[in-house]
Amino acid sequence: MGSLSGILQRPLIAAAAVGFASFSSDFSLILPSHQSQSQSQSNHSSSDLSTSTTTLSSDISLSKLAASLSFISRIQVPVPTINLPIPNSHCNSLYSSVASSPALLKLYHSAHLAKAPNPAACKHDIISSSTSVPDVSYTWHLPEPNALDVSRTSDCSSAKMRTVVVLLGWLGAKQKHLKRYADWYTSQGFHVITFTLPMADILKYQPGGKVEDHIDLLVTHLADWLEEEQGKNLLFHTFSNTGWLTYGVMLEKFQKHDPSVMGRIRGCVVDSAPVAAPDPQVWASGFSAALLKKHSVATKGTTDTSELGMDALVDSKEVVAPKPAVTEAALLLVLEKFFEVVLNLPTVNRRLSDVLGLLSARQPSCPQLYIYSSADRVIPAGSVESFIKQQRRAGHEVRACNFVSTPHVDHFRNDPKLYTSELTHFLEDCVLTCCKQSR
């Protein structure tokens, strides 16, 4: 099959002229210079380390902390320099001590990319949860220091330290968009990997191309981490159809190369997905939302008429759903017609059917949490609820939460209290049961 961008070019010219003229600045790809970024990181690192004089308190064992992070020496990521900002506030003294520790710095600098062909060309990094996040394919976030139990006396803390949460981004998501979720997980004591696929690579998708290369590297990275020792586990958190399909491809690769990994997956959180079959309307809505971003109707939730001061005009509450602008309606129409053709191409249909079939019938036996909304303009709530029923019939432990009025992949920002509450209860009740027992 030719590249997706080549197929897209001709049928979308008319829609692009109408729909994107006023939004052209949103679609430029910013590619920062790797050399200048490395030089900047090196300068900051020298400055931060030279000014830091705080030492770790005598009651904390650096050797135990180093041992708990020993897997870093085999992480498949190049780390030419390390920038660990040292806060000056007294309340962050532990963080300062740990970050300035020679033992921990040695672990960072020992990281290498053993199996990648050209480390200088790789777009992966390892950072602390407070470091600014570049636009890369995947990034490793360390647990926050105040969430670490370096004495390893807490079973719950140890279980979290042995678990990596893999966040798989939505179409058009960048590392900065996933940082909000990563920060929450690292504050709970988890390691986190945030994974995104560049929009340009998706539009140029070809079998065996860059998209699959990115996923292969991540799968290899996780497999190597799991091989370090027994007791290490994975938790997946997917966003929209792109994250969901990425999860399916990863499961496929795990089953093919090392089926035992499937038993190390302790849970899966599914945000704003899935649709169990290729649907042109869903794909059109997803690409439209990714291209138009904040200008898309998909970013708008629903509103009760009572909230609009219309109680006197109606006898009961009604839900008011925003309508797409003329330009977006035109784009949606073109994209839907386009995907009606593309999704029925034999190679595309076969590939999607394989992945979606695996996700429907051969998921790991781990618990599942589905977070969705009746107001989602990309993924219909009915599709999610139908899939949930199917998984329960198959014997899976499934939880679900309908946020009712929040937009697509925007539930955390709109209602962080409910979102984190659902995650906490899911993790304690289904994934890390020792945490609930120790309370």
Helicity, as a percent range: 40-55%
Number of distinct helices: 17
User: And the CATH topology of the domain at 4-18 and 151-437?
Assistant: Rossmann fold
The CATH class designation of the domain at 4-18 and 151-437 is: Alpha Beta
Sheet-strand content, in percent, reads 5-15%
Poorly predicted runs: 10-125, 127-134, 305-317
C-alpha geometry: globular
What is the average per-residue confidence, as pLDDT, rounded to a whole number?
73
Give the N-to-C terminal Cα separation: 55 Å
Strand order in the largest sheet = 1-2-4-3-5-6-9-10
CATH H level, superfamily name of the domain at 4-18 and 151-437? Alpha/Beta hydrolase fold, catalytic domain
H-E order: HHHHHEEHEHEHHEHEHEEHHEHEHHH
Give the structural class: alpha/beta
The strand count comes to 10
Walk me through this protein's architecture:
By secondary structure, the chain is α/β, with parallel strands linked by helices. It has a domain at 4-18 and 151-437: Rossmann fold (3-Layer(aba) Sandwich), CATH 3.40.50. Helices cover 46% and strands 11% of the residues. It contains 17 helices and ten strands. The protein has helices at 4-19, 34-51, 62-68, 93-99, 102-109, 155-161, 175-187, 199-203, 210-227, 240-257, 280-292, 326-342, 346-361, 381-393, 411-414, 416-431, 433-437, and strands at residues 124-127, 138-141, 163-168, 191-195, 233-239, 265-271, 303-304, 319-320, 368-372, 398-402. The longest helix is centred in the first third of the chain and has 18 residues, at 34-51. The protein is globular. GO terms for molecular function: hydrolase activity. It is found in: Nucleus outer membrane. InterPro entries: AB_hydrolase_fold, DUF829_TMEM53.
